[in-house]
Every structure is written in structure tokens, then in C-alpha cells.
């Protein structure tokens, strides 16, 4: 089993190298690399460069300027986006997964998704938000926001604000914290599909608590934490501010809404779990067909709707980059549905409803890191390429690894996340219709088209993918082993054959 697990992780790393599109190297090797100060988040709306030399009186006046006030439109958009991500998890993901299992395990999957999400939200407000989004070191944050302390300023009598990607623009920190809580929650919920129908409910919760703490929080901090645009007040402090950011942010890795943090991170955990827990009783000999593709289609549709909050909300403002992420999420997913149907028709002779739903999720996964980082043309290509790649992932790769990934978590979220992360580096290029990346946060100016190197950015993206694979893989391996030693991972064969609805929860989804 360990040999297969190690081989599986090796295949993942090798695949990351193999899927580098030839276009990534089409850029002339002599072209200048992305500026060292380029960062991972969407660029702010175009802002005028500051005056070269402001008079002392004006500088003093600026220093005494009132603190920025959250715009009600931005705040409302972020609250709506948070609701949409909850919708895509409960009921979206729950129904998508629930329809795919056998009827005797329907409620167990719904429970695992709902309770995992709920537990992680609680852990998030206790310590998760603080460790992910406060200043610490390059790998993990600090304790300034434990139990959300400091959100209300008793002296000033106001709520604290969080930075966006535009200078002088903020949103309430409570809204930002709630939005990010939904990301943490759905990431844990995604993992349960890999070992559905055979794991103890208590083992799920114990593993999720460990994995959330030691895998999700560090990766989220490394990819997304930075000091905010207003901290880049002058060129003299720019390097110091960048040095306080998360490791992958410092490298310049682009991840708009969670290709590494959410999808690759969860998929690797699922891959490790599928190997360590073992195959379902009767796997390869008995039929494991989905019990309700109708519910799966409903779940996929809710995922698509909710994903607009997931991706477009990651702009943190109701602005042009939110609109770009919105339409990219729309068209990449539509293209992926069509591509999967074509792929199935060519390989199996017929296009299926399950295939169309899987294609939608593949497109959503792949466009996540790219949503606000590529043009619409790039989104179309990413949706198509990722759909074909994921079709191979749930068929060819799954057989190669010899694993029972029940609901193809790695085949879709892992493969799709890797493809999306790498192609983000390609189609972020202005020469391919991308918006480029911010090269200087002091003046909020973009990397010039002639200075953008596709090869350099794809290499940065690949490093981010590999760090995520290794980090999540090691943490997952240790966490599953600890849970197995203390609680035990798997239900008995008798309980598995009876179905987890009855054996784990004492109820059934359907009464005969």
C-alpha cells in the first residue's frame, strides 16, 4: 500500500511537469522575467500614479486623512458571495456527492459534508483565521485574531477593516473572515468524496481537524497572506512588506481563488486517504453505480451557481476583476461540459449525464486559480484542456494508480487544479489576452507585456503546485496514521455492507 501511495504522489509530481503546455516555453528565453515584486493576487483597478514629489504640507494633510470607509456595494457583494459559497457546499456539494454513492450511504455523505463544513467554520473563528491571515512568518500566521479578538475597537468604537487589492479601499474584516471561512469549510468537505462509503464518521472529523490545522491553514497563509496595498507606501518599504507575506506570495505564484489552496490541497489529502483506507468491499467485482444522477445533476448546478461567489467574490470588490472572474467562470465551465461530452462520445460512443456534470466541475476547478488572472479566450482554452485532462484522470490515471477514489476527487480536483494552476501562468500573459500581474504595488502598475515571461511564471506556478502536493501529502499521511492508531479509520465489513446510513447514523435516506 505504501509503495502504491508513494508511486501515486510521484505520478502527481511528474504529471505537474508533463502538463506544461508547449506555449509556456514559446516566450523568447531572453525576455525579462516577471518583476521580483509581482504578486499572486488580482491587480487593483487602474489607479493613477502618485505625484513625483508632494509638498510637505500636502504630505502632512495626507497623513492626517481619515481612515477609509467600506463601500456598501463592495460589502454587500462580499456578503452575497459568502452566501453563494455556502450554497455550493450545502446543498450543492452534498447533493452532488450524495447522488453518486449507493442509496444505503446517501445520508452518511450528506452528514460528512455538512458536519465537516460546520466544524471547520467553528475552528476557523477560534484559531484558523488568525493563523491564516495575520502576520507571522512565511509559513503560518500569528495569534492576533484568536477567537476573533480585536475585530471591535473599543477605543475608536468601530469595527476593524480588511484590505482589498486597491489602495484606500477596504471591506469589514468580519465579512472577509466569513468569506474565507467558507473556503476552508468546502475544502475539507471536498476530501470526503475520496473515501466515501467506508470510513468511520468519528475518523472523518478527527482527520479533518488535524488536516485543517496543519495543511489548510499553512497553505492558505503561504498563498494568500500579504500586508495589503496600502502597506506599500514607498519603494523603500516595498521589499520589507513583501518579505512579511506568505512564501508562495513572495515567489509570485498566481492563485485567484484557490487552485492550490482548495483543490490540489484537498485532492492530495483524498488520494492519500483512498490508499490508506483501502478499497470498498466488493470493489471491482460488484456494481457501484450512482443511485441518483438526478440529485447529482442538481448538485452540480448548485455548484456552478455558487462558484460565482467563490471566484468573483475573490476580487474582494465589486469591480472589473470581479466581472472578469464572473464571465470566466461562466464560459470555462460551459466549454468544459461540451468538451467532456465530446470526449465521452469519442471514447465510449455516448455522452452521459454523469459526464456532463463531471465536466462542469472540472471546468469550475480549473478556472478557479485563473478566474481573474486570464482573459476570456484563455478561460475557454483552460476549460477545454482541463475537461479532457480530467476525463483521463477519472479513467486512465485512476486505473494506473490502482486506487478506489470513490467519487474521483483526485481525478477532477487534483488534475483540474494542476492544469488550471499551470495554465494560469500561460494565459496571464498580456500577449495571450491576460491582464498580467501587478509589478509594482507602490504605484499599482502592471508588468509590461514585453517584460512578461510565460516560462518564468509557469515555473513559479509549478513550484507552488509541488509545494502544495508535498505539504498536503505529508500532513495527510501523518494525520490518517494518527487517527487510525487512536480511533481506527474504517468501519467493519458488516457495517459497510449494511450501509453507513444505518450503521453510523441509525437512519435511512429512503423508506421503502
Automatic annotation (TrEMBL):
What's a Pfam family in this record?
Ammonium_transp
Q: Which domain of life is it from?
A: Bacteria
Q: Which organism is it from?
A: Roseateles toxinivorans
What kind of membrane protein is this, topologically?
A: Multi-pass membrane protein
This protein is called what?
Ammonium transporter
Similarity comment: Belongs to the ammonia transporter channel (TC 1.A.11.2) family.
Q: Which residues form the Ammonium transporter AmtB-like domain?
A: 76-510
Where can this protein be found? Cell membrane
Tell me a GO cellular component: plasma membrane
Keyword Transmembrane helix in annotation: yes
Transmembrane segments in this chain: where? 76-97, 109-127, 174-196, 203-227, 256-278, 290-310, 322-342, 354-372, 378-397, 409-427, 458-480
Transferase is among the record's keywords: no
Q: Where is the signal peptide?
A: 1-26
Which controlled-vocabulary keywords does the entry list? Answer: Ammonia transport, Cell membrane, Membrane, Signal, Transmembrane, Transmembrane helix, Transport
Amino acid at each position: 500500500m505504501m509503495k502504491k501511495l508513494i508511486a501515486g504522489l510521484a505520478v502527481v509530481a511528474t504529471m505537474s511537469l508533463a502538463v506544461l503546455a508547449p506555449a509556456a516555453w514559446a516566450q523568447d528565453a531572453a525576455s525579462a522575467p516577471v518583476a521580483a515584486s509581482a504578486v499572486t493576487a488580482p491587480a487593483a483597478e487602474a489607479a493613477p500614479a502618485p505625484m513625483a514629489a508632494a509638498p510637505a504640507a500636502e504630505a502632512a494633510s495626507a497623513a492626517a486623512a481619515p481612515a477609509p470607509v467600506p463601500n456598501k456595494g463592495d460589502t454587500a457583494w462580499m456578503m452575497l458571495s459568502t452566501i453563494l459559497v455556502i450554497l455550493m457546499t450545502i446543498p450543492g456539494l452534498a447533493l452532488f456527492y450524495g447522488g453518486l454513492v449507493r442509496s444505503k450511504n446517501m445520508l452518511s455523505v450528506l452528514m460528512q459534508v455538512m458536519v465537516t463544513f460546520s466544524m471547520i467554520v467553528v475552528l476557523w473563528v477560534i484559531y484558523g483565521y488568525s493563523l491564516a491571515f495575520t502576520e507571522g512568518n512565511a509559513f503560518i500566521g500569528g495569534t492576533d485574531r484568536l477567537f476573533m479578538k480585536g475585530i471591535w475597537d473599543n477605543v475608536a468604537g468601530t469595527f476593524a477593516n480588511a484590505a482589498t487589492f486597491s489602495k484606500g479601499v477596504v471591506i469589514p474584516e468580519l465579512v472577509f473572515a466569513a468569506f474565507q471561512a467558507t473556503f476552508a469549510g468546502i475544502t475539507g468537505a471536498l476530501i470526503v468524496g475520496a473515501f466515501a462509503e467506508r470510513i468511520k464518521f468519528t475518523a472523518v472529523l478527527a482527520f479533518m481537524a488535524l488536516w485543517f490545522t496543519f495543511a489548510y491553514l499553512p497553505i492558505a497563509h503561504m498563498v494568500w497572506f500579504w500586508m495589503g496595498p496600502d502597506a506599500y507606501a514607498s519603494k523603500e518599504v516595498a521589499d520589507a512588506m513583501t518579505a512579511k507575506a506568505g512564501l508562495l506570495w513572495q515567489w509570485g505564484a498566481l492563485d485567484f481563488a484557490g487552485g492550490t489552496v482548495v483543490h490540489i490541497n484537498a485532492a492530495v489529502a483524498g488520494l492519500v486517504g483512498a490508499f490508506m483506507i483501502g478499497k470498498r468491499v466488493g470493489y471491482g467485482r460488484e456494481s457501484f453505480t450512482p443511485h441518483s444522477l438526478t440529485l447529482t445533476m442538481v448538485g452540480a448546478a448548485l455548484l456552478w451557481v455558487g462558484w460565482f461567489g467563490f471566484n468573483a467574490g475573490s476580487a474582494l470588490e465589486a469591480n472589473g476583476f470581479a466581472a472578469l472572474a464572473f464571465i470566466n467562470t461562466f464560459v470555462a465551465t460551459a466549454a468544459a461540459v461540451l468538451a467532456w461530452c465530446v470526449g465521452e462520445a469519442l471514447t465510449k460512443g455516448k455522452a452521459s449525464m454523469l459526464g456532463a456534470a463531471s465536466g462542469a466541475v472540472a471546468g469550475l476547478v480549473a478556472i478557479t486559480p485563473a478566474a481573474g488572472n486570464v482573459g476570456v479566450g484563455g478561460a475557454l482554452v483552460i476549460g477545454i484542456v482541463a475537461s479532457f485532462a480530467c476525463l483521463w484522470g477519472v479513467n486512465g490515471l485512476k486505473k494506473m494508480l490502482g486506487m478506489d477514489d470513490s467519487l474521483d476527487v483526485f481525478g477532477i480536483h487534483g488534475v483540474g487544479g494542476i492544469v488550471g494552476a499551470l495554465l494560469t501562468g500561460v494565459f496571464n500573459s498580456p500577449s495571450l489576452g491576460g491582464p498580467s500581474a501587478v509589478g509594482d504595488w507602490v504605484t499599482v502598475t502592471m508588468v509590461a507585456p514585453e517584460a512578461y515571461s510565460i516560462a518564468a511564471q509557469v515555473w513559479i506556478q509549478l513550484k507552488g503546485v509541488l509545494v502544495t502536493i508535498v505539504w498536503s501529502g505529508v500532513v495527510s499521511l501523518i494525520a490518517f496514521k494518527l487517527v487510525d492508531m487512536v480511533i481506527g479509520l474504517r468501519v467493519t465489513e458488516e457495517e459497510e455492507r449494511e450501509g453507513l446510513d444505518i450503521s453510523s447514523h441509525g437512519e435511512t435516506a429512503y423508506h421503502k
